[in-house]
Amino acid sequence: MPILGFGTYQIDDLEECERSVTEALRTGYRLIDTAAAYGNEEAVGRAIEKSDVPRDEVFVTTKLWVTDAGYESTKDAFERSMDRLGLDYLDLYLMH
C-alpha cells in the first residue's frame, strides 16, 4: 500500500474527477481513494481503465456509507461500488 494517495472527496464534476485521477496517475500517484458517497466512483474507474498504469500497480480504496451497514446491505453496496468502478477487484474497502 503506497504511503501517499490521491483522494477524490468533493470532486463532484465527473469530467473533472476523471481528469484529476488521470493526472494523478500520470504524475506517479498509485493509491486512489474514493467512496460511494462521493458519487464519483464511475469517473475514478474510467480514469484507471484509460491510464497506462497496470491495474496491479494501482491501489484502489473505496468506502461503504454508514447507511449501508449490515451484512447483506454491505455485500450489495460492495457489488454496486465494484460495478461503478468497473474493476475486477478492490484493494481496500472501508466503512465511512
TrEMBL record:
Q: Listed GO molecular functions?
A: oxidoreductase activity, acting on the CH-OH group of donors, NAD or NADP as acceptor
**TM annotation in the entry:** none
- Family per UniProt? Belongs to the aldo/keto reductase family.
Query: Sorted alphabetically, which keywords does the UniProt record give?
Result: NADP, Oxidoreductase
> Which PANTHER family does the record associate with it?
2,5-DIKETO-D-GLUCONIC ACID REDUCTASE, NADP-DEPENDENT OXIDOREDUCTASE DOMAIN-CONTAINING PROTEIN
Q: What is this protein called?
A: NADP-dependent oxidoreductase domain-containing protein
Annotated InterPro entries: AKR (IPR020471), Aldo/ket_reductase_CS (IPR018170), NAD(P)_OxRdtase_dom_sf (IPR036812), NADP_OxRdtase_dom (IPR023210)
* Residues of the NADP-dependent oxidoreductase domain: 4-96
